[in-house]
Design goal:
14 strands, Rossmann fold, alpha/beta, 15% strand, 409 residues, seven-stranded parallel sheet
């Protein structure tokens, strides 16, 4: 379906053309008419399918078609700062030719600018639950003018313990609002929330919890202590400039990143212990390919809109098949191909079986010829690496020559 079918306000159509939007994705084709009609909506769709535009476009259209009023008129609640910034960017891109204003509200940064956004009556607020509730409790924010409320990645917010905050926020918005809820899964707590706060919602499901068909999957069986060395060996064969590596903990993200840098790769960690400026700077470097390898916790497993990632490597197995789907959703996006590579130990077999059931097929297991699986030892040097990934400033010609001779540097 072409976006012209929706007869959006001309300034929005101009924004669509400027952003290069032409044909809708399935979730956009299904959700936009329901949102325009004013229905409450429950939407589920695979990551990377254009879900954000599916609610941003009709919200912009409706706000432009109504009399301007002071105060927050659309509130989008999302679990992480990164998702908030990305939604904010989509709003700015699609609404660039309109007078509508948006702002983000989340922790880790100062409150004055956010307080000013509420005072100015910014039409669209994209917020994380904790900081928004903080503003409400301090009397900085009023939500009595909200016409549309979006709960994005709702199951993720429940996983992060935000359910009490969400309930408090729901009490502060008008009862006659439109509510749009997007979630990959529906645990019992979320179903109760839907029953209590949504009015006869329409349900739309598109490719629910099924990994993209453009992604190839492979398992690399290995012991835990040999993972650092095997990771370096796997990276040797990747002709790419964009690799996302997932770890289970913040400590391990730091350690893997440091190991890679010592081996001559350009890499950086991404996790919740970094301040917001550090996280935004790292993401921007990765998005623009100035940083070829990002080592992240599951903070990066949902919503990061970086289409150029060719490989996702699970250094640690995710805790569920659903988490696997979210992680590998960072590659194979927008009809591009991608690879999902997982380092797996014997303890991961139950999760592997669940993932294979989700995929409907066994996953290829790769054993690397010549790799010393039974000889654990600390990683001290790297084999030669592709120029696309190598840090040219730290790997000298002499070191490359010594590595070729099998001599440790």
């Amino acid at each position: 379906m072409n976006f012209a079918c929706f007869n959006f306000e001309p300034r929005i159509e101009r924004g669509l053309r400027a952003a290069g939007y032409d044909q809708t994705t399935p979730i956009q084709a299904a959700a936009i008419p329901a949102v325009l009609a004013g229905d409450d909506l429950i939407g589920t769709a695979q990551t990377g399918t254009g879900k954000t535009a599916a609610f941003v476009l009709p919200i912009l259209h409706k706000l432009l078609g109504q009399e301007k009023r002071a105060g927050t008129r659309a509130l989008i609640v999302t679990p992480t700062r990164e998702l908030a910034e990305q939604i904010h960017e989509v709003i700015r891109t699609l609404g660039q030719f309109t007078p509508l204003r948006s702002a983000t509200v989340y922790g880790g940064v100062g409150m004055p600018a956010q307080m000013q956004a509420f005072r100015r009556g910014v039409e669209l607020i994209v917020a994380c639950p904790g900081r928004l509730l903080d503003h409400l409790q301090r009397g900085n924010a009023r939500l009595d003018q909200v016409e549309t409320l979006v709960l994005d990645e709702a199951d993720r917010m429940l996983d992060m313990g935000f359910l009490p905050s969400i309930r408090e926020i729901l009490k502060k918005v008008p009862a006659n609002r439109q509510t749009l809820l997007f979630s990959a899964t529906f645990p019992a707590g979320l179903e109760r929330l839907v029953d209590q706060y949504l009015r006869h919602p329409k349900r739309i499901s598109v490719d629910v919890e099924v990994p993209a068909g453009t992604v190839a999957h492979a398992l690399y069986p290995v012991s835990q202590q040999m993972k650092p060395k095997l990771l370096l060996r796997v990276l040797e064969d990747l002709q790419t400039s964009s690799v996302l590596i997932f770890t289970r903990t913040k400590f391990r993200a730091n350690r893997v990143s440091e190991n890679l840098k010592r081996a001559g790769y350009e890499a950086a960690p991404l996790h919740a212990n970094l301040n917001q400026n550090q996280r935004q700077r790292t993401l921007e470097q990765f998005r623009t390919r100035k940083l070829p390898i990002l080592v992240a916790t599951d903070i990066a497993s949902r919503g990061l809109d970086i289409e150029s990632i060719s490989h996702v490597i699970n250094y640690d197995m995710p805790d569920s098949a659903t988490s696997y789907t979210h992680r590998i959703g960072r590659t194979g996006r927008a009809a591009r191909t991608g690879d999902a590579l997982t380092l797996t130990t014997w303890e991961d077999q139950d999760t592997v079986r669940n993932i294979e059931r989700l995929l409907g097929a066994p996953i290829e297991k790769r054993i690397l010829t010549g790799f010393p699986y039974d000889e654990p030892q600390p990683v001290q040097a790297a084999a030669p690496v592709p120029l696309t990934l190598r840090n040219r400033h730290t790997v000298t010609r002499n070191r490359r020559l010594s590595l070729c001779r099998g001599v440790r540097s």
